[in-house]
Amino acid sequence: MFRYLLTTLTLSAVFCVATGQPLPEFKTRGNKIQGLTTAREAKMREALATFEKIMNDTLFQKELLRKTFAYDVPTDPYRTLTTRQVVEKLYKAAEWYQPAEDQTANVYWVIKKRAKIVTVLTPHPAIGYGLPTDTTIYTYTWYFDDAANKADIVGHLAHEWSHKLKFAHLKNSHPGRENTVPYAFGNLIKAFAKKYYQTSSR
Ligand SMILES: [Zn+2]
Predict the structure, then answer these.
(1) Cα of 74 to ligand 1 centre, how many Å?
(2) Average pLDDT, integer, range 105-129
(3) Distance 131 CA to ligand 1 centre (A)
(4) What is the number of other CB atoms lying within 10 angstroms of the CB of residue 44?
(5) Ligand 1 center to residue 169 CA distance, Å?
(6) What is the pTM of this model?
(7) Within 10 Å of residue 129's Cβ, how many Cβ atoms?
(8) Are 88 and 199 in contact (CB under 8 A)?
(9) Residues in a beta bridge with 32
(10) Half-sphere exposure (CA, 13 Å, Cβ side) for 168?
(11) Residue 121 pLDDT level (bands cut at 50, 70, 90)
């Protein structure tokens, strides 16, 4: 009887998650914030705070749950996940270097000095990078310092952070890349950041 009850309870718990329990409260934490100047570091903290606010916005959550994600890496172990499972993974926020499901984006972020260099071969120069074996997200000054990129930076942060949960995409640009988790998630965060900053600057 007890075992039966336990099975029923477990099944109903699984069912609740599958049918859409509210997502947990999400936090962001700047474990390492190195911006070369205090002004940049203030801007980095503002981006972190905006990322947190958007993650807790129910309208954002609704739109994220409506996405159909694509996987362009054939061996991607996440390719069988449902949208709900992807979203829950994002909210559990278990980074490879901090694997507790703490609903907290543990961010290590460094700004690196680099000028914008546009050539025929690189019409869209890199805005920054992250390495699979490194906790840190690197962003270049040429991109970070441009006031026009204020909302984009929040999207960039979300995109790079999702890589720390092992969401992936191919390096080369192709039509389906925008639907991979890092791009779709980062772009939706960016769209909401644009909306937030527009209203707050008026
Ligand atoms: Zn990426």
Answers:
(1) 16
(2) 92
(3) 10
(4) 22
(5) 6
(6) 0.88
(7) 14
(8) no
(9) 108
(10) 13
(11) confident
